[in-house]
Specification:
Length: 364
């Protein structure tokens, strides 16, 4: 087992990929009324996933930064621009933005800052130590990916909107929305921790002579598709499959895949609690080119009601698998050693969103 400190700032360098011009197929198999419901939901959530929307929420220097950065600029200039943000420029609207999309730690910092008032000496000290880091992380680890790729992954869906859709249109969800209450509302994964998760998964499989081209990636709770897209851009995996219970966000994921012209990646409407289509084992004892493996990516998609049976089904598949669990709030769903799960890597951070446990099972 290895332990690593998470990096909250860093550039994204992805390997160029040959792409196809064909659009991904729409996987939604519902009737026309369900399809209409998906389109209506899409009209409401799509604007939430644009960089422009976040720019409106982030006044002053961060908004100017969003407007000024383009894909031609170097990581050095981006870091310099991020460092140019000053505590005195932070407003309560910036704090509101962090509070709305942040993790528990981020929200606690915001409450503490507001309690001290932004303008006070104590408030400025908190901003300098913590709030600026969160704003830089928001830009560097979330917004920058979309600016570089022309995708729409940076936003988030308010919890009340999820609840509304679940109550009024359960047909938009897999398994008739039976596990909506156990799911976590979607928001973008952090680029830096995703890169570690993807690379470490490949390394662990490689140690067991399983090549990337024989690995299927399952982006679990994929939302608008960023983790799976990053995986597909980074390695020549056999296939990347995005799974999410909300059909409307899958439409955005398909749009993002089409924007990049990617092949070998698809998304499907699925309830992780009952999902068990993990493919065939291949040859464990044969040559390396015949060995198959699965790499699971999961950014806190649900509570233990869903995670525990999902992990159990992965283990029961018998296929060599890694499970990269970002923000591992329900790590107790992986009973180690006695039931076949092994903790391979642990990334520690004061930020919940930058914590990562990577487990393995069924390795030859």
């Amino acid at each position: 087992m290895s332990t690593t400190d998470a990096q909250t700032e860093g550039s994204l360098a992805l390997r160029p990929q040959e792409v196809s011009t064909s659009a991904p197929a729409n996987q939604n198999g519902g009737d026309s009324s369900t399809r209409q419901g998906v389109l209506e939901a899409l009209q409401r959530i799509a604007p939430l996933y644009t960089v422009e929307h976040l720019g409106k929420l982030a006044p002053g220097p961060l908004q100017a930064l969003i407007a000024s950065i383009d894909s031609a600029q170097t990581p050095t200039s981006i870091k310099a621009a991020l460092r140019s943000l000053r505590p005195v420029e932070i407003t309560t609207q910036h704090l509101d933005l962090i509070e709305s999309i942040g993790d528990t730690w981020g929200r606690a910092v915001v409450r503490k800052t507001k309690g001290a008032t932004v303008a006070s000496e104590e408030g400025q000290k908190i901003i300098e130590q913590h709030v600026l880091r969160k704003l830089r992380q928001l830009f560097n680890d979330v917004i920058l990916f979309d600016l570089q790729h022309g995708t729409k992954t940076s936003g988030y869906i308010p919890e009340e909107m999820y609840t509304e859709f679940a109550n009024t249109a359960p047909g938009l969800f897999a398994n008739e929305g039976k596990n909506v209450e156990h799911g976590v509302r979607h928001r973008a994964s952090l680029t830096s921790i995703l890169k570690i998760a993807i690379d470490q998964g490949v390394t662990i499989h490689g140690e067991h002579k399983i090549k990337p081209e024989n690995i299927t990636v399952y982006d679990s709770g994929c939302g608008t598709g960023k983790p799976g897209i990053m995986a597909r851009l980074s390695y020549d995996f056999e296939e990347v499959i995005g799974l999410d219970y909300f059909e409307a966000v899958l439409e955005l994921a398909r749009e993002n895949i089409k924007t990049l012209g990617l092949s070998g990646i698809r998304v499907e409407n699925a309830d992780l609690q009952i999902y068990n289509d993990f493919g065939k084992k291949g040859s464990e004892a044969g040559p390396a080119e015949e060995r198959k493996g699965n790499a699971i990516l999961a950014y806190n998609p649900a509570d233990e009601t869903v995670i525990e049976p999902y992990a159990r089904n992965i283990l029961a598949s018998g296929i060599p698998s890694t499970f990269a669990y970002i923000k591992p709030l329900h790590a107790d769903c992986f009973p180690l050693e006695k039931n076949g799960w092994h903790l391979e890597t642990e990334v520690k951070s004061p930020d919940e969103d930058s914590q990562l446990n990577i487990y393995s099972c069924n390795m030859p």
